Amino acid sequence: MDALLDHLEESIEHARGHVADALGEGRIIDATDAQVTRALTLAAELQRLTDAVLVAATGEVSRRSNQTDREMRLTSRMGCHYVSELVQRLTLCSASTAARLQRAAKPTMARVSLAGTALPGTLPALHTAMLEGVVGIDGALAVAGPLGQVTQRVPHESVLAADDVLASVARGEGPDGAPAPPADLLKIQAQTWAIYLDQDGAEPREEKALRVRGVTLGRERDGVVPISGNLMVDVAKQFEAICDAVTSPRVGHERGVTFRPRDEVSDETDADGSEFRADTRTPAQKRHDALATALSVAASSALLPTIGGAAPTLVVTVRQEDLTEGRGWAHIGTEPVSLQAAMHAGCADVIQRVATDPGGRIVRLGTEERVFNRRQRRAIAVRDGGCVIPGCGVPAAWCEIHHVIEHAHGGPTHTDNGVLLCWYHHRHLANHGWQIRMRNGIPEVKPPPWAERVPRFRPTTTSPTRLLAALPRRT
User: Fold this and answer.
1) Is 8 a residue whose pLDDT tops 50?
2) Packing angle, helices 124-131 and 156-171, rounded to 10
């Protein structure tokens, strides 16, 4: 062990000088492609060897800190409460990295027999691959995670066989002769082995998932409601598919729109004169908007169970004078929301008008009506194709219909006054600077100043029929 420590100290001092000389003051920009890629390869191999030392040492720290007598524990003797704290202090790593080191050490660390002799860990071939610098901490966790879940349910000999094969795969010496895979691909192979070894494991896992599934809504605070819980895998994947369908960026070349990262957005256009825009939403915000879209589509599908003989209906209350004057608050149940939320619901949902006198007495009760009926929606979908904001790409089935002239301001419920907008652009239309007008029954959209140097109204559609009609006729 002393020889290893001496070697590590010498290597660190030797490497420190070379690293500073080669990379200081941005010298790497003068390196060739071959030198840069070779530097990545060699540094990664060195890091994998370093990972082997880190994992082994963390495992031994854990073993020496697992004493019944607290005062005899290594962590206590070093003035730390637990292993993670000691690892963080010695390595200057984060708590998450310390936890990963502990997880990687558990299946690879040596065990001690009753006679006090060292025994191999539960995955000895993986441990050997780490000592060779073939597998780092990412690869170790990729293998140890799936195999660790089945070690209690399958014969140990079967786990050792999978361990041997996966170590060979990591070296590029697997049965299929494929080159050494990255950690993510190694994890897929480890998961495949775990499934193969544990044919009966799916049912217990399914039963556990059914027990812990659930979604919890917290209390409203500052205009948002926290959500937490666990989704079944099929439900989560369905939600991911909806997110991909609703939020994937699409470039409309026929409309001259190009998406850019948010830090590249300016008030200019490309050299070829095409406009550009960026979606500034975070991934979490996009998933929220996709969920909102899915809920809106489900509520309007007429396929959900009824409540008291009626479809699930969002009840939004607002004073008529506040809605007309554009000030004040609306309410969803007892929770206050902005007037923008009320106007959005007024466009997208079923409306029933209830008039009260100043004392609160109901003086007039209107009938429920959907703002745009099915025939109107189909006609508008044929005309617009999808969300009319250029570059959005959300299809018609996922869109809501927006009154160009607000319903509260006397806008008619007519195809000449309705356009398709996705939930996100419908809810935030006033905030993003996009303007919409109708001209001879055709929607025209004007972008905000950041999207076009000289903004102007243009007809917009993704309807194949209208796009085809716009092409020049062949003689």
Assistant:
1) yes
2) 20
